[in-house]
Amino acid sequence: MIIKQQLVNSRAVTFSGVNRRQFITIHETGNVTKGAGAQAHANLQSKGFTSSWHWQVDDEFAIQSYPHTAQCWHAGDGRGNGNLYSIAIEICVNSDSRYQKAVANAARLTQQIMKEENIPLNRVVQHHHWSRKDCPHFLRSGRNGIDWYSFTKLLQEGAGKSPLKFGNTGSKIKELQKDLNKLGYKLVVDGSFGPKTRRAVQYFQAMHQLEVDGIVGPRTSAQLKEALINKAPIRLLKYANIGKAVGQLQLNLAETGYKITIDHSFGPETLQIVRQFQGREKLTVDGMVGLTTWESLKHQIFK
Ligand SMILES: [Zn+2]
Prior knowledge:
This protein has 303 residues and is an alpha/beta fold. The protein has helices spanning 38-47, 81-85, 99-117, 127-131, 137-141, 148-156, 171-182, 195-207, 218-228, 244-255, 268-280, 291-301, and strands spanning 2-5, 14-15, 23-28, 55-57, 61-64, 71-72, 86-91, 124-126. The chain is 41% helix and 10% strand. Helix 3 (99-117) packs across helix 6 and helix 8 packs across helix 10 (244-255). The relative contact order is 0.09. The chain folds into two domains: 2-156, Peptidoglycan recognition protein-like (Lysozyme-like, 3-Layer(aba) Sandwich), CATH 3.40.80; 171-301, Orthogonal Bundle (Muramoyl-pentapeptide Carboxypeptidase, domain 1). The radius of gyration is 26 Å and the shape is elongated. The longest helix has 19 residues, at 99-117. The structure holds zinc ion. Zinc ion binds next to loops.
């Protein structure tokens, strides 16, 4: 795919504000005429058309007509989020372009824009999303051998979802902090993965049967999503268990004021302290750390 710019200088067919670039809207041109590819559509915009969009893609080219900051007229929603805050991509459907290749190119371009503008997958939407138009028509019907679901799969492929870890900053960390807060971790949503965020991630991992490494990789990320809808499995810690999760529990008990050896081993001392903690918090005193004990300890630590 050759990526190039053929920018339109006029702003006659755009709104005058700044596009906040929160969504990507996928269209199809609907024009099956031979030769109606990306270059022809870019030329159409250069000459001055009645509507506008940022990119057009066919089986060979991706051509940019407007900077992403422009508020193009494409979504059919007036001054709605579609026109004002999304980036528009038109997939060409001319009969002399290989449609599936054009869709694959559109997926690559979309991935690139998602990365550049920090737009998550769930904010890549169809034109239909904004104004109920049957667009992108072929992707919606799947009639040309590739449907919307496959398109979104293409977006996920090789996207290289890098794990979130200590030292990272940005909107993904903000989302993580917001999610953790919904689970009671009470973090400052500052978009910075610092010691407190790491501590919360470690606690979450210890509590939910994950490796306690403080890094949000695919498994932790998936468990987090499950926990938000209330079904992530809880780790039950009890006498004779050993490992990092036990170490994490001991660390957290120490933080709440108990004098405890951090030896990653649930021995007699840890058992006694867990019982003391349960008594103090008026929980069932069984010496086993299950959901209620994990939650209670969480409230002590993250406040
Ligand atoms: Zn459309």
